[in-house]
Amino acid sequence: MFNVMIRFKFYKKDEFKYLSHLDISRIIIRALNRAGFNPVYSQGYNPRPKISFSNPTPLGVESFAEYGDVSIENNIEEEDFKKRINMELKEEIQVTEARKVPVKIDSLMSQIDISLYIFVLDTGNSGKARQEKFYKGIVGLIRKSDFSDSIFDLKKVTSGKATNIILLKLFGYAKIFKEKDNRIFKFNSFYLFLGDLLEKYGIKINDVKKEELFVIKGKSLKTPIEII
Amino acid sequence: MGDIKRLDFELLEELLEGIEKPGRYINKEIGTKSKNLGLPEDFSGMVFMALVFPDIYEVGMSNLGIQIIYDIVNKYKDFSVERVFSPWVDFEKKLKDCNVKIFSLENRIFLDCFDLVGFSVQHEMLYTNILNILDLGGINAHSEQRGENTPLVGAGGSAVVNPQPLSKFMDFFVIGDGEEVVVDILKKVKIYKKNNKSKSWLLKEISRLDGVYVPRFYKFYYYKNGLIKKFEPCKKVKKAVVRKLDKFNVVTDPIIPNIRTVHDRYIVEIMRGCWRGCRFCQAGIIYRPVRKREVESLIKQSVSGIKNTGYDEISFLSLSSSDYEKIEHLVEGVTGALKSKRLSISMPSMRLNSFNLRFLELIQSGRKTGLTFAPEAGTQRMRDIINKNIKEDEMLECIKMAFGKGWEKIKLYFMIGLPFENEQDIKGIVELVEKIINVARNEVPGRKLRRLKINISINAFCPKPFTPFQWVGLESPESLKKKFSYILSNTPKRYINIKWSDPERSLIESALSRGSELLCDVIENAWKNGAKFDNWSDFFNFGIWEKAFKNSGVDISLFTTRNFPVDEILPWDVIDIRVKKSSLLKEYEKSGKYV
Question: In B183-318, where do the E strands start and end?
């Protein structure tokens, strides 16, 4: 039998952000079955489909960078895989990329080093001056902080008249519990770090999203698909 | 009723902040079939029904009845049915704190905007949850106090074969199979809505249907002591029966839950009813007659169900699956057609013997999940009394074979407090367990023996309406406790895990199942004082119920420990279950022959 391993990237948004890692796993397996793919099963007492995923995204956070590795018994083209599985999934969860994995590789969990989160901060209708003040405050705070390396992007968004949105993109450890040093932000400590400032200026977090996952390759960052 | 009001997604997001398992409240499963709501004029003629399961999502979505009714009703273009489940306590609190009414999953329609609210009630301990949901939906619990512009509220399911304890809360009940009568009711609701008819017109109309009981058209008269003197009119309501199961296809495209449910698999009903005639068993009577699905179409539909859902497990459901003669052909047909797929098969309620153990081994394809035996009683005498046709040596033979083949988990079901029970019957349970341990010692190699666990579940016998034992009183909790502690202290701890049902819960359960109209006040009182999820042992609060009986001036023993004289008018005599009361009585008398 010809087994093929496919690494795929998918998003989960809207209602699906409320589904856990394990729920998503079951949903994907059933979608594979419906699409007519036969997942390869593990050996042993309680055989399970060979499928693994990237690190769990906190419940309630949308993610545009979920990755999975699955072995199936069908020889299939990447585009075809994507098309067929997407037909079996709701629009809130769709595969955006798929690539065959030619050689044995490490698991996603052990490969991925960095995740990138976007925080959409809402300064309310408190006026431009206030937004400016908060913006300076946050810049100062982060620049001075231990994890100044974490900032990927920080910008004010102006669309039309509204000037109340600040986009903050932060790199974070993918491995939440792995304590290397304090120079990189951890998702769990976001409120600990920025909580006071948010409160002081009455800033609301409109949205949090996981945008991408990276593997450190030499001096550059590569996505889990790029490294194949 | 009137305008359809819905909860928008942004508000839902706010409500879900910090809520446990938010996946319970989001809908978006594959297989939902409620109508999409476009412009109001698109659904102006539509009848909206809320199908309510008064327990949490994970339990409700494991129920086949919900999937069946949902499927049948949503096939009609003029009807749209949406699901509602009990919110877990954290979400209930959030709804109350934020002053938001409970809503359906699909289109997040608030409960009081539906035309019809239909509860599916599987057992008595959910009665308080029903009141809770009505309250969360802003719907008055009392049928009489609900005006013309409130939804019609009804209930069906196996618990309501005795509708009396809920009779003040429901406008109508569906007794028996729901497949046909629910549609007939909805057709009447459509006329009622379109022509602006009155509620009493509607209730009159549906009361003519088989299986529909409308409490307000009946009047019960009581003696001073609370017993029923008579009821009027003396016309009984006939149970609704679907003559041929094959008239309705198996649901091959059910809703596939996004989160893990209690029974997370594809479920197919192969047979309804059971001819075994265990005298304590209510399902055995109320689901009569025995009806089987035709095997070839069952194979075809099961295969397409597995392909449509992507499940890797199928469950062939019935009250006694090994009594479906063509079960082997069914299993072979399904596995043969799905050869390339991994498929495990589960068969709840299989009566195990050495013959079908081989079969079970085959279908479990090497995976040895637990085996369940239900001897129910410890002696042959007692098993004859209850008409449980299991012979001890056959069972031991089967267990011996199972241990030899590598099964390690065995579960046994017993009941205590059965009619005519004596000391020897209780000792018999202990002796039977000892015999099983001895079989294990001989059959299971030492290394494995150490981790052997035999799970024993001991339930108090609760007399149920429409059984030959419906007249028998529940044994007192004190006596049940004594019997249980005898069993507990006389069975070896080493290999045995004993669970038992709280006798105080059994007391309430039996009051609710054999209760009359008088129980309505008790249930309402208990609910007002915080009773809900009474089926969950960490929620059940006996004190609340005790007080509720006291406050309502109802003597609990009237419905529980008391033996009903056979000529007494029973609360459920208003229902014709299509098994004669005299046949039940004959069976009851037969049981006494073995004493």
Answer: 212-213, 219-222, 228-232, 237-238, 266-269, 271-272, 291-292, 313-317
